[in-house]
Amino acid sequence: xxxxxxxxxxxxxxxxxxxxxxxxxxxxxxxxxxxxxxxxxxxxxxxxxxxxxxxxxxxxxxxxxxxxxxxxxxxxxxxxxxxxxxxxxxxxxxxxxxxxxxxxxxxxxxxxxxxxxxxxxxxxxxxxxxxxxxxxxxxxxxxxxxxxxxxxxxxxxxxxxxxxxxxxxxxxxxxxxxxxxxxxxxxxxxxxxxxxxxxxxxxxxxxxxxxxxxxxxxxxxxxxxxxxxxxxxxxxxxxxxxxxxxxxxxxxxxxxxxxxxxxxxxxxxxxxxxxxxxxxxxxxxxxxxxxxxxxxxxxxxxxxxxxxxxxxxxxxxxxxxxxxxxxxxxxxxxxxxxxxxx
Length: 342
Known about the structure:
Layout: H1 2-34, E1 37-38, E2 41-42, E3 53-57, H2 81-93, E4 98-102, H3 113-125, E5 130-135, H4 142-148, E6 154-158, H5 164-170, H6 181-194, E7 198-205, H7 215-221, E8 225-230, H8 254-263, E9 270-273, H9 275-278, E10 284-285, E11 290-293, E12 300-304, H10 305-308, H11 310-314, H12 321-326, H13 335-338
Parallel strand pairs: 3-4, 3-10, 4-5, 5-6, 6-7, 7-8, 8-9
Antiparallel strand pairs: 1-2, 11-12
């Protein structure tokens, strides 16, 4: 009887201890879910972000010296190709439909071969609806189109002026005796037609081109889109003591930007983007595949999606999905749907 009593008491203590441990464990899980951290990154309790359109700045290196550049050559790092492909596959699994490759100058690394491999991989292997590039155009060769053109949907060339002297002041030039930026732009336009790549022009409106009328030249080029940006200042990139550029002399007011837009309002392909529209409405990946949060007026990187996964990295992207949609971030971006007259 005594043994049975002691046995019974032991069972009670055992069960009590087990329940106490279970309660502590459940409490831990509850608190962890409330403020869970993965390698220092807090998991968001907000609506899940779908990375429908991503801009991958895989290199910061560039052969131009644009005074207002907001993604400057802070380092020369480029991910190994297999790691970049792994990250792109992860993004596709998370809902990415469009990838845009930019820099720096994306054609500078391995003379465009690295970029070409990524373009082909995204279209052929990942079967993304849209693969695009933003480039200054200076390093593009026809041989690249012959090899990779079929995998590219849209090529955007940056052109801030059709006056060569203005381009040189801005920094879009190749030095004394260098090729004409505008002449190369027109040649690339012809290659895009020849190799069936949709052609786009990007322009940053600044102090030195604010009074220019580009209507006639844009009309002759006839791009599918003419993206017109207001010069943007970002701490640590093109303004501030640690920045490689000082873009303050290029900066224009909202009123000046609006005047430029009104002068070109009859250009049907014009897509305007003020600083308010642009600053937080892009998903920007840097050379380490970290999303860059620009909400504070500087670029604050997440951890790399290669280390923490896409969802956790996106939580620290600062992405404004409402503004992304409001600015027309989703459009007809696959060349097969553009119905162009090649």
